[in-house]
Amino acid sequence: MTSHEIDAARLTLALNELRLPAIKVLWPRFAEQADKEGWRAARLLSALVEHELAERDRRRIERHLAQARLLPGKTLETFDFAAVPMVSKAHVNAITAGDSWIGKGDNILLFGPPGVGKSHLSSAIGLALVENGYRVLFTRTTDLVQKLQQARRDLALESAIAKLDKFHLLILDDIAYVTKDQSETSVLFELISARYERRSMLITANQPFGAWDTIFPDPAMTLAAVDRLVHHATIFEMNVESYRRKAAERRKGPGRPPQTASPVDMTAD
Ligand code: ADP
Ligand code: MG
Q1: Which ligand does the CA of 244 lie closest to?
Q2: What are the angstrom distances between the C-alpha of 228 and each of 1, 126, 129, 167, 175?
Q3: Rounded to two decimals, what is the model's pTM?
Q4: Atom of ligand 1 minimally distant from the CA of 123
């Protein structure tokens, strides 16, 4: 073994130990180029370190994406803004930059009937925020309520809510689907109170506030919850026709017979 080979073997071991995988992979090629082109030592070092940092960022975002449990395939690129004129693309782009509202714990509320793209849009906003370095959790509200109720039974509600603090944005999809038995222990109210003015929430609902009485144990608590949610909130009312239904109608095409057409239709000319 030449001394050069010994150096290389040692370096590889040390980079493993230091957990610098990008530098471990890249250094031989970079070192060769540096030797050939006569780079100054500082240039070689900074090139290697830059790559390690970029790789670290990439891995972190990958980890945050896995934790976010977003809906697969729902992106802003695939969202047709023309279908919801009350939601402007520019406004949503400003939202996904994050800084003006997420730091203050402001909220976003999306209202609208089923099929208008509330889940799609909220997951897509979540995705863009993760890509911009924020931490997000997307969950059906009833699933989270169930988990928090279990935590309360285990006398661990406070720490369960505190654990959610690591997420800059909590997306609660379909809050109005919370059932009466889930509302009795009001874990959702505890969550909303705990995050108030500190950590953001994005909530979707197919019912306006007036119909939120089933979500919380009593009207006073409903009022208090709504009050906290709207205090610093952007509200989008997506009152349009169901995108799902419109898309289905487009597939069928105009003027064609309904899908229940019998085989007889095929022979009729
Ligand atoms: P909601 O949550 O309001 O019930 P979804 O987000 O589940 O609606 O949307 C229903 C389906 O229609 C999904 O497949 C979604 O991707 C699609 N969709 C809804 N609105 C749009 C839109 N504006 N652009 C593209 N796809 C949309
Ligand atoms: Mg939905």
Answers
A1: 1
A2: 70, 22, 23, 19, 15
A3: 0.85
A4: 6
How is residue 134 written in tokens? Answer: 């924020």
* C-alpha span between 186 and 172 (Å, rounded): 15
For every one of its 269 residues, what pLDDT tens digit does the chain have, with 9 covering 90 and above? 788 889 889 999 999 999 999 999 999 999 999 999 999 999 999 999 999 999 999 999 999 999 999 999 999 999 999 999 999 999 999 999 987 899 899 999 999 999 999 999 999 999 999 999 999 999 999 999 999 999 999 999 999 999 999 999 999 999 999 988 888 889 999 999 999 999 999 999 999 888 898 899 899 999 999 999 999 999 999 999 998 888 888 887 665 544 544 444 333 33
- The number of CA neighbours under 13 Å toward the Cβ of 174 is 15
Q: Considering only CA atoms, which residue is closest to atom 16 of ligand 1? A: 120
Most ligand 1 atoms within 8 A of CB, residue of 76, 111, 120, 236 to mutate? 120
